[in-house]
TrEMBL record:
It comes from Hymenobacter bucti. This is Glycoside hydrolase family 28 protein. Its EC number is 3.2.1.-. Belongs to the glycosyl hydrolase 28 family. InterPro entries: GH28_Enzymes, Glyco_hydro_28, PbH1, Pectin_lyas_fold, Pectin_lyase_fold/virulence, RHGA/B-epi-like_pectate_lyase. GO terms for molecular function: hydrolase activity, acting on glycosyl bonds.
Length: 559
């Protein structure tokens, strides 16, 4: 009880009040490491509403949906406070948060969402940046002020009940257990589906996406396929997620959408490595955000910034901006810190520091494609430690899930492809600063691939130490500055490969790599204005090779 009273006092005094002069000064000055965005915190009354008082039973069998929602409604209607989930296994259906409510899970509390799909009605929402019908999220709130989920308990979304899974992703015993649980197996024996509706949905193009004239009943035949995100807060202000374990989400785990003043602190997010779309957190079109001290071990991207997809995202036109991400750890994921690919509303003023990525597919992952549109700029990253990255430590890719142009053949330029005009659907990556980054193990240290009509540009990389199989590859990049880059590579390949890029500055390049391979491989007729100063690449290494129409004048090396 003393701990609970201390918690109430702490939360009641947690509001961060910005004096008018300070707020005005910050609004007028550009954001920087010395002038970070401010994120207001919620505060709550000490009044406590125990869900047991409203009839909830922690027996793991009783469905407590109505009792928990009654407790939340009563708390909000009486001015707010704490809705307490004591220790125990609480089975429930969808829970809807309300303003001025802090849903607090005690250390031994498990909020277990039911595997009965009928408890989750189809609702119109947003999925992967587009309007879509989905099953109602286990935890949700819309148009709320001052709301939180805190404590040390566990929220389990029962995602394994929702997800189809391939046999090759499970052990033999896991596969046998899955088949014995029900559902059905594909004719070739390679895929398990929870239900016939799931299988039908997997075979339906654009399943769930809102179509003209369609309503919820039109999607009933594929309902089970339309997996919900575990938590969705839509258009909420002063939101806090703190201390809780969120796990086993049917799709994305945490999805704040169009929120302002969002804090995610000291949470643990867990999903199986085979969980398709099992992202940790997707911050979409939000403003003033702090994600700190948290751990992610998930099936897709770890910490991800989004802002809508294609024309719908541009129509919304709300960037994710003023974000601080610090002191987080990401284990298995498709990317440790990610922007995209649904970033059509843009992203700006994002600060990432003091994070570790351990065994993720990619470390820093920035992805987009033609058709997205959206401007991503003013991104600052520092003090990042990575180990055992499967693919790229640092990746900028503007051909995400699309076919890139053919690589230039040795000695011969590839057949020219028409370059599209720049339109509102052309994405942009510019003005990134990445510094003090260490990676011990990756397939490739740095990969940049822009579009011919819109290069990746204005990127500064300072003080990088990367050990990888391959070094650096840049295609269609412009105005890139690399200072104090230390590379240790293993592959018998050029250390730095440049294709149709210009305005590249390398200063302080140190290389430890197999001998006999050139320091630079330059290709393409548009490669130009590449300078290298203070390079230490070891004796007997050729400075460069030039291929596919590249001129020897494109590169100047001063060792």
């Amino acid at each position: 009880m003393k701990q609970l009273l201390a918690l109430r006092k702490a939360l009641a005094g947690a509001a961060l009040v910005l004096l008018p002069g300070i707020a005005a000064a910050q609004a007028s000055a550009p954001y920087s490491w010395a002038n970070l965005p401010q994120v207001q915190q919620p505060s709550f009354r000490a009044d406590t509403f125990n869900i047991s008082t409203f009839g909830a039973l922690p027996d793991g069998h009783t469905l407590n949906t109505a009792s928990i929602n009654r407790a939340i409604a009563a708390c909000s209607s009486k001015g707010g406070g704490v809705v307490l989930v004591p220790g125990g296994l609480w089975l429930t259906g969808p829970i809807e948060l309300k303003s001025n409510v802090n849903l607090h899970l005690m250390r031994a509390a498990v909020l277990q969402f039911t595997a009965d799909f009928d408890q989750y009605p189809l609702v119109l929402g947003s999925y992967e940046g587009l309007p879509a019908y989905r099953n109602q999220s286990p935890l949700s709130g819309t148009n709320l002020d001052n709301v939180a989920i805190t404590g040390r308990g566990i929220v389990d979304g029962n995602g394994d009940a929702w997800r189809m899974v391939g046999r090759d992703r499970l052990t033999e015993n896991e596969w046998k257990k899955k088949v014995a649980s029900g559902g059905l197996v594909s004719d070739d024996g390679r895929m398990w589906y929870p239900s016939v509706k799931t299988k039908l949905g997997s075979q339906t193009p654009n399943a769930g996406n809102l179509a003209p004239g369609k309503t919820a009943p039109d999607y009933a035949a594929i309902k089970d396929y339309l997996r919900p995100n575990l938590l969705v807060f839509n258009n909420c202000r002063k939101v806090l997620l703190e201390g809780v374990t969120f796990q086993n989400s049917p799709a994305w785990c945490l999805h704040p959408l169009l929120c302002q003043d969002l804090t995610v602190r000291n949470v643990l997010v867990r999903n199986p490595d085979y969980a398709q779309n099992g992202d940790g957190i997707d911050v979409e079109s939000c403003r003033n955000v702090l994600v700190e001290g948290s751990t992610f071990d998930v099936g897709d991207d770890g910490i991800c910034i989004k802002s809508g997809k294609d024309a719908e995202g541009r129509k919304r036109g709300v960037p994710t901006e003023n974000v601080i991400v610090r002191r987080n750890v990401v284990y298995h994921s498709h990317g440790g810190f990610v922007i995209g690919s649904e970033m059509s509303g843009g992203a700006r003023n994002i600060f990432v520091e003091d994070c570790s990525f351990m065994g993720s597919d990619n470390g820093l992952r920035f992805k987009t494609a033609r058709g997205r549109g959206g401007l991503v700029e003013n991104i600052f990253v520092r003090n990042i430690a990575m180990k055992d990255i499967v693919h790229d430590a640092i990746l900028f890719d503007m051909y995400y899930f699309t076919k890139p142009p053919a690589k230039l053949a040795d000695g011969q330029p590839a057949a020219p492809e028409p370059t599209p005009a720049v339109t509102e659907a052309t994405p942009q990556f510019r003005n990134f600063t990445l510094s003090h980054i260490v990676c011990d193990g990756a397939e490739r240290g740095i990969f940049m691939r822009g579009l011919p009509e819109m290069n990746v540009r204005q990127i500064r990389l300072d003080d990088l130490t990367l050990r990888a199989n391959k070094g650096v590859e840049m295609t269609e990049a412009q105005d890139i500055q690399l200072t104090n880059l230390h590379l240790q590579t293993l592959a018998a390949a050029p250390i730095v490969s440049v294709e149709n890029s210009h305005g590249l500055r390398f200063e302080g390049l140190t290389v430890a790599a197999p001998t006999g391979q050139p320091l630079f491989s330059v290709s393409g007729p548009r490669a130009a204005d590449i300078s290298v100063a203070k390079a230490e690449a070891g004796p007997g290494r050729p400075a460069a090779e030039f291929k596919a129409g590249a001129s020897a004048k494109a590169l100047k090396v001063k060792r």
